[in-house]
Amino acid sequence: MGTMIEIHCKKCNKRWVHDIGVGFTTGTDSRQIMLDDKELLKYIPAPDRTKIIEMAKSKTIFLDLYAGNMMCKCDKCNTFNSRLAAKVVDKNDNVLYEVLPQKCPKCHQLMHYIRLENDEDVDLDDENAYIESESDKLAKQFTICPECGGGLECHEVGCWD
Fold first, then answer.
1. What is the distance between the alpha carbons of residues 115 and 125, in angstroms, rounded to a whole number?
2. φ, ψ for residue 154, nearest 5 deg
3. Contact 111, 102 (CB under 8 A)
4. Single pTM value for the model
5. How crowded is residue 61: how many other Cβ atoms within 10 Å of its Cβ?
6. Does an H or E element contain 89, and which?
7. What secondary structure does DSSP assign to 25-60, as a single string?
8. 3-state DSSP assignment of residue 145
9. CA-to-CA distance for 15 and 34, rounded, in angstroms?
């Protein structure tokens, strides 16, 4: 199940809501790409679809929506958004193509995915263990408002599938 994150500027009151994580249509299962599969090809940016179709003609390839929606950030101007993280792999899981973060709509620099550390090493039997929420993890990454330079807050506001 994915998480809806609200990012709010304390100075200018601008609010953004983004979906992150995985749901029924995104996740760890790979699906084979067929030549006429418009459902899977929609996840590939339009300029690259021809290249993926050509690959599918010569070998068996799969679309892996491995992380679902991830947050992207521009380090130059602090602009952020969410984007589907996907890759095309062969039957041996070799990466043939990866959907990269887009260029920043404001300053045109390449944005980067924000990879949140996982909580696998937390001892769940420890009654004092603390599992950090997605919004707490994102709050460390998003601190400056891209509109006014003010401080940002992050909150989980819902779930999606």
1. 26
2. -120, 140
3. yes
4. 0.68
5. 21
6. strand 80-90
7. SSSS-EEEPPTT-HHHHTTS-GGGHHHHHHHHHHS-
8. coil
9. 40
The pair of three-digit structure tokens given for residue 149, joined into one six-digit string: 């330079």
Distance of CA 79 to the CA centre of its chain: 15
Over its length of 161 residues, how does the chain's per-residue pLDDT go in tens digits? Answer: 778 889 999 999 999 998 888 766 555 556 766 666 777 778 788 888 889 888 888 888 888 877 678 888 999 999 998 888 888 888 898 999 988 888 899 999 999 888 765 545 545 565 555 556 666 777 777 889 999 999 998 888 888 77
For residues 25-37, b (16+ Cβ closer than 10 Å) or e, as one string?
ebeeebeebeeee
User: Which residue, among 79, 83, 110, has the nearest Cα to 99 in the 3D structure?
Assistant: 83
N- to C-terminal Cα distance for the chain?
A: 5
Place of tokens 């193509």: 97
